[in-house]
Write a structure and sequence with these properties.
The protein has eleven helices and seven strands. The chain has a seven-stranded mixed β-sheet with strand order 1-2-4-5-6-3-7, with helices on both faces. Strand 5, helix 6 (about 135-145) and strand 6 form a beta-alpha-beta unit. The longest helix has 20 residues, at about 220-240. About 45% of the residues lie in helices and about 15% in strands. The structure holds adenosine-5'-triphosphate (ATP). Adenosine-5'-triphosphate binds near residues 64, 220 and 221.
Amino acid sequence: LRTYGKAQVGIPEVTWNDVGDLEEVKEVINKYVVATMQRRDILEKLGIEPIHGILLFGPPGVGKTLVAKATANMLKANFIELNGAELARVGPERAAAVVKDVFNMARDNAPAIIFIDEIDSVAPPRDSPTGSVWSNVIAQLLTEMDGLRGLNNVIVIAATNRPWFIDPALLRPGRFDKVIYIPPPNRDARREIIKIHIRNAEVEEGVIDWVAEVTEGYSGADLAALVREAKMRALDRVLSGDNKVRITREDFEYALSKVRPSLSRELLSQY
Ligand code: ATP
């Protein structure tokens, strides 16, 4: 990855194989984004508007960043990440200039995906108490999004845990008009995610199914941490003389006591 100022540019290594579940999300992205970037001729013939912006929303740690990276990898597009919370820290004046630079950088490095994580930090509704502070940044984002209309090789993916806290002008046609919910993982999804993180490792039979069953409320990020913890526990065990060189149910029991679920019912009831 090359570094431009603070932002890095390069094709991510994450592929769809690293993303557990989320089949519908993959399908929508494959269909619209691939058509926009690679088969514009078909869209024109069918009178379908190309896509310029996608908003991914859902609880924390469910794979929004992962989806954006896998999309860039699939398209062999450069990935330029802009973190809304970091951008907010530079202040509203400089933030507008950074937004402008990042869009220029994307055009210079096309095909490119711009990923704006935590977009709500810099694009709250302009009529909200914090909204007026960020109106310059929002205006810059709107200008840049509108400027992408004639281009088919730059797409912006934004992510948020608070879709209700985004200025509505950003969601109008031609801007972030494809809004996709990334849900918390259900049991089957959790099994897929655990399998991805545990691949290549030796695991006691039946353990993955059992872990998937008992991890309600665990996000993808929590499951990744859980598997890491179980692996380290197994390593400790084996190094202290145990001859079971595989990950056992007991390793996961220990990991479950260390890594707690982050998705409470209360949090999920917002979506
Ligand atoms: P946040 O809202 O906190 O930014 P996010 O939704 O963008 O979170 P990611 O950063 O994509 O979540 O996920 C964090 C980590 O959790 C990933 O790097 C990956 O290890 C794991 N993870 C999350 N979702 C999945 C998934 N569906 N499949 C595989 N791993 C996942």
